[in-house]
Amino acid sequence: MLRWVLPLALLASCNHPRTTVGAAISLKESMDAIQPRLERSRGHAIEFAFGASGDLASQMERGAPFDVLATAGDEPRLHAIADETCTLAWNTLVLVHRRGGTVAGSGAAGTAQTSMLTWTTLAQTPPGFRLAIGLVPQVPAGVYAEEALHALGAWDAVSPKIVRGTNVRNVLDLVARGEADAGIVYATDVAIRPEVESLGEVPDRARPNVRYPVWVAKSASQDARAIAALLCDDETKRALVSHGFLERPP
Hints:
The chain has about 250 residues and is an alpha/beta fold. It has two domains: about 5-90 and about 210-240, Periplasmic binding protein-like II (D-Maltodextrin-Binding Protein, domain 2); about 95-205, Periplasmic binding protein-like II (D-Maltodextrin-Binding Protein, domain 2, 3-Layer(aba) Sandwich), CATH 3.40.190. About 30% of the residues lie in helices and about 30% in strands. It contains eight helices and 13 strands. The strands form three sheets. It has a six-stranded mixed sheet. The chain has a five-stranded mixed sheet with strand order 10-9-11-6-12. Strands 7-8 form a two-stranded antiparallel ribbon. Strand 7 (about 100-105) and strand 8 (about 110-115) form a beta hairpin. The protein starts with a strand and ends in an 8-residue tail after the last helix. About 40% of the residues are buried.
């Protein structure tokens, strides 16, 4: 699902030029923070379309009204229509649970605190356990989660217990509402939901390369190319680091 964000003060200026930028939903808070600078630099409104990276890439491929797209991973379908201009930042996966939650059926009295749950004990979770991850292939966080679970040797045991979210924030919601016992999201997502806490980062041996490339359509206007350049500059990268993103691979 896309979310279109435009400051109310700019909605009144409907006759002024506007540019739309697509962005992975995990970038929302960072993009909200840099939006005023982008608009001052370009002298017009810039709106964002947030969603699952794969869904946004499909829409860009079908001619959606944005020539700049920041995804949460490589999108091979874009190679024919867009150029990758930089990597904005990197991220890592964390296992999360609802603060104060329990895992049904795993303790002597029928329950156990989820503080006992770790990446390496996922394969030993009981049949009623539910792990939320993103839809594959639309949601890069889901792709990365599957890669990590395979690398840990937990996939066969965990796969029957998986519930899917339409994007990484939906995965976070499933955990926050108690509709899943645990979930796999980006480290930067945890801070936005006080009901959810991290149980630890993915172990090094299973850590995927979570990076955020910026794409600009081969047919893009000079304005779109200038916006892509602003997204790739040092000030933007510093803003992402201030929101918990990594400036280099972990």
